[in-house]
Design goal:
With about 90 residues, the protein is an alpha+beta fold. The protein has 2 helices and 5 strands. Strands 4-1-3-2-5 form a 5-stranded mixed beta sheet, with helices on one face. It is globular.
Length: about 90
């Protein structure tokens, strides 16, 4: 079943290669969407794909890369649009 979820991740998630970690994780799971840093110091991740793969991504996000400390993840279900052709790292 296709779905889309936006995650807002807070903690020590900027300056620790979190976005590259998200890209590698999403690519390995076949997910599409984007990741970007927010001015608040949080990271936003939007993924589209199979429900089970998004659940795996959520587990990876909770773990994070070395040197990160994930304090909180806020998931928000979105409408699946199929607008993404791959997973991108966005700049501000």
């Amino acid at each position: 079943m296709k779905k889309a979820v936006k995650f807002i991740i807070s903690g020590t998630v900027q300056g620790v290669f979190f976005r590259n970690f998200c890209k590698d994780s999403a690519d390995s799971l076949g997910l599409r969407g984007y990741v970007r840093n927010l001015a608040s110091g949080e990271v936003e991740v939007l993924v589209e794909g199979d429900k089970d793969k998004i659940e795996e991504m959520y587990k990876k996000l909770k773990q994070g890369p070395p040197h990160s400390q994930v304090r909180e993840i806020k998931p928000e279900e979105k409408k699946w649009t199929g607008e993404f052709s791959d997973f991108k790292v966005l700049r501000f």
